[in-house]
Amino acid sequence: MAVIKDVAKLAGVSVGTVSKYLNTPELLREDKRAAVEDAIQKLNYKPNLFARNLRVQDSRTIAVIAQEIRNPFHAALFNTIRKEAMKHDYSVVLYSISDVNGNIDTLFESLPVHYFSGLILCYFHDMEQSINFAKRHEKVPMVIMSNSNRYFSKYDSNKIVHTDFTRGIQKLCEYLISLGNQNIAYIGCKTKDAAHEPKLNGFLMTMEKHHLKPHSIIRLEKEYTMETGYESAEQILKSGTLPDAILSDTDVMAIGALNCLRDHGVKVPEDMMLASFDNIEFSRYCNPRLTTISVPIENMSIKAVELLISQMENKEYSCKDNGFDLELIVRESTKQLLESV
Predict the structure, then answer these.
(1) Which of 210, 215, 275, 306 has the least CB density, counted as fewest CB within 10 Å?
(2) Is the distance from CB of 214 to CB of 207 less than 8 angstroms?
């Protein structure tokens, strides 16, 4: 007797895709649906209706899709979502979009969709893809965590929690300029959302506002890691002239850059200031500690879980705005240049 694994093998798809065909075939692409149908007919496969009925019951499990599990920012985000969900008797499972080259549809088709009750999407690197994905799957209880308020009008306001990364970087850049820094370098990574890169755009707008040109912009096609930050800082040092400051668009990269500068005898903040974004736990334990923009992970996570539960449990919920402000945290990696005069 054929089992679900046999169907998946013959159809050339995952077991999760076959499961999705059996429960919600409308969520599959036409080519995959046809492949599964053909395999079922050839194998004369008969699904276990008892097991299937067990699966379609409310699992009280929330799936969280994030960019990169290794990044401390996403780890902290997942942990706060998990803690809040537990208060309401829900468990949480984390999936990484980086495992499928950033394609949400590919990841979603591989998920055992009936093993979770709702979805929180935290893919900050490609918000357009996130919004379009959510619109295609309106029947799935879902909340999007967004890096910009520009998406609030494009989607159901009761299904999106947002902050403004552009404004956050502008606040950070303004602070660096207020300390006397004019020659500022920027480090980050290239994202898939080429049409709207909120952090880089915020930096460029602020520099233009003050009639300043960036020392350099280093954006590697790599993951946000300490190693990438180290390599980015090395490229800046090889340019021959030191900037007044480096603005990193994540704390993780800033920590790597800090180690690179130390290895090359560049003192922070005496020789060069360093500021970053996220306010992860490690940023408080560097030497020197990092000046950074704090993302309100806890408040955003609480709101995201609240909105999702209202969908999963069919509760009425109405709000005008689920936006959260970003806070500048000043620490020892920056100081006024006048203090050393």
Answers:
(1) 210
(2) yes
